[in-house]
Specification:
The protein is an all-alpha fold. About 70% of the residues lie in helices and about 0% in strands. It has ten helices and no strands. It is elongated and about 55 Å long. The chain starts with a helix and ends with a helix.
């Protein structure tokens, strides 16, 4: 059956049922737009113009869908930050800029998803626990990056916390900042977090990655 069949008969149980990815993507969009309380099976079915029973071909229940959303967040954002922390850099300043890529490119690190999950964690002990574990893993990775570039462990710990927790504060407060202003502040941020300013070549590569002139 085609998509048009499902759209013309949203109550059908024999037409196109979508896919796990389609249901999960719709849930993700609802989470970002309206919070976890809006992520309901009937709402998703109406939005997708699919039967409610189609949902159960892919997920046992709403809890299973929410668990899949949490797994998606873990796989996307935590994995991205770990990759950036381990990325090649010629200096500590450049390594810090690699982390900054997360904050400026939603394709690398989904800041809106992060905000939504942290808001969700306020009302869910399970999600709150997952956030605590993610924060621990991410901080360890950033600390290891600082140690790799010559920082003493205690200094690396403090710098990693300053870098990471500052950005999580930006995200949790849903701070909106003009990209141009943010870019102007980047060298000073790098100096505060790493103890050294990025050189012209490092900044040029960073600007190029983010199509900033």
């Amino acid at each position: 059956m085609t998509d048009s069949y499902a759209a013309s008969d949203p109550n059908t149980e024999t037409g196109w049922r979508g896919s796990q990815e389609i249901w999960l993507e719709a849930a993700y969009q609802l989470l970002l737009e309206s919070g976890v309380d809006s992520v309901k099976i009937l709402t998703l079915a109406k939005q997708l113009k699919l039967s409610r029973t189609s949902f159960y071909w892919f997920f046992k229940d709403r809890d299973a869908l929410l668990e899949a959303l949490l797994t998606l967040w873990q796989e996307k954002n935590t994995a991205a930050l770990l990759r950036q922390a381990a990325s090649y850099a010629q200096s500590l300043a450049e390594a810090t800029l690699n982390i900054f890529d997360c904050w400026l490119d939603n394709a690398i690190f989904d800041n809106s998803f992060e905000h939504a999950v942290r808001s969700w964690g306020v009302q869910s002990p399970q999600v709150s626990k997952a956030l605590e574990e993610a924060d621990r893993i991410r901080l360890e990775a950033i600390k290891a990056m600082f140690v790799h570039h010559g920082c003493e462990p205690l200094v690396a710990d403090v710098r990693s916390r300053a870098l990471y927790l500052t950005q999580i504060g930006y995200i949790s407060m849903n701070t909106q900042e003009d990209v141009g202003i943010r870019m102007q502040r980047v060298p000073a941020y790098v100096a505060i977090f790493s103890g050294t300013l990025p050189n012209a070549a490092e900044l040029a590569r960073f600007h190029q990655r983010h199509s900033y002139k």
